Amino acid sequence: RSGALSFAKKNHSKVHGKSKLQVLSEASIDKTTGVFDKDNPHMILKVSPGTTFLGLLAARRAARADAGDDEEQLAKVESAFRSFVDKSEAKFKEDVEKDPTDPVAVYNYANFLQTIEDYDRAEEVYREAIALDPENVDVINNLALLLHEQRQDFEGADKLYAQAVEVDPENVDVLFNWALLKKDALQDLEAGCKLVDKVLELRPTLAEHPLVEDFQNSKKGNPFFQEAS
After folding, report:
1. Average pLDDT of 175-187?
2. Is-contact 13 20, C-beta < 8 A?
3. What is the dihedral of CA 95, 100, 104, 108, to 10 degrees?
């Protein structure tokens, strides 16, 4: 993902004729008192108006790292981040509240929560979406990724990928994700390679994809595949 902030570079990039650092400073002045406000969300996260959402996420990670074990500063970082995303979340929640049985609205809310790295609530809402629409492969795949990458619940992710493939046996994204889980997390290279073979049956043009090449290189050094050949 991209989104690295550039306001702190010595050759400050320009935003409407001003450096981003200048815009950041202006955004951090209390409009009522004219006093520079170090607790302004822009200053806490070191972002300027117009920062992309991915940039905002990167800034929160950096601010958390800088805060270390300082609980007070960590709370300020989270509060600052929430000040930027609360309005967006309110819109997704409103859509769900209008019709809690709408699987698309519930899925969109879960996806938003995953995007802002609120994994606990994202998992909960994804499960609600699956209950409403058990054959929505996008929902199943996203939850499987969350369990795999954030929870290290490899068994749970494995079951979800199997469920997704049962619904859509030719979904290349799901097959790739499942193959990676098999190889990297479950240490089952043979199963992973079978899934990649399926991908290549469906999309021969992916033969030079880095993920496919990685599997091929793994096979070369594996005695099981050497004996089979």
Report:
1. 95
2. yes
3. 50
